[in-house]
Amino acid sequence: MRPNPVKTRLAQGGLVYGTMIFEFATPGLPTILSTAGADYALYCMEHTGFSVDEMKRQFQYCRAAGIIPIVRPPDKSYATAALLLDIGAMGFMFQMVESASEAREIVSWTKYPPQGKRGAMFGGAHDDYAGGDLAEKMKAANDRTLVMMMIETKKGLKNLEEIIAVPGVDGVHLGQFDLSLSLGIPGQFHQPVIQKGIDRLLASCRKHGKFAACMAPTLDTAREWMARGFRMVSYSYDIGLMSERLREGLEVLKADASRLQAPASGGKKARAAATTAGRDKAGGRRKTST
Fold this sequence. Notes:
It contains 12 helices and 8 strands. The chain has helices spanning 5-11, 29-36, 52-65, 78-86, 100-109, 134-144, 154-158, 160-164, 176-182, 192-208, 219-228, 238-289; strands at residues 16-21, 40-44, 68-72, 91-94, 146-151, 171-174, 211-216, 232-237.
């Protein structure tokens, strides 16, 4: 079975990089990400309407491109988690986790017995449609599946320490946008309660030997959070990356066009004036000669 170098690198204290995918689930996307230097793709099914069939294709494209596919499921249920694992997901980001008991239940969905309750399906997408020893496959699957809990509510922040301590939770992902909503300060990430929460998250991860993950919308934010200790960094998301780069380019081109049109307009006026003057002179000569 294919290993998960992202999980291995994080377990060794390293850093990994990728981006979040909300819109452009095209066949070439994983190869584009690989060419750009990404380690993983984090697909969001919660806010996008991506189908299971689309995800199955994406997971296969990721396999071919050497990208690790991680997914935020559309809901938190055993049936959804087990299905996504069977079609090739190699990691999860579970949303709005608020207690240790909830985290333990979620972990059990991602592990084969005796560590968990994942149902048996072999010779399919997740194990490369191949045969082999079932006990070895079960162990390999348990070992390679990356399990993250999102801390993005007031209650989740309160119970942060106990969530991180749950065995099988590999790391936690900051959900700054929903967290700010839950705290009643929408989008105000600079507020002390958010910043202190980030400090607690990072300290708890260090204490328990887990990694901290984030989605950084800007390079400045990414640099700051990496300096503070985040080790799994999703740089922006597909819609943002495309629209921002396009906007930047079009703004430059439109500004250039405005500068180019100004002298051209002046030149037309000058040429028109010269033509009129020439006609007047010519008319004067004709009058004199008659």
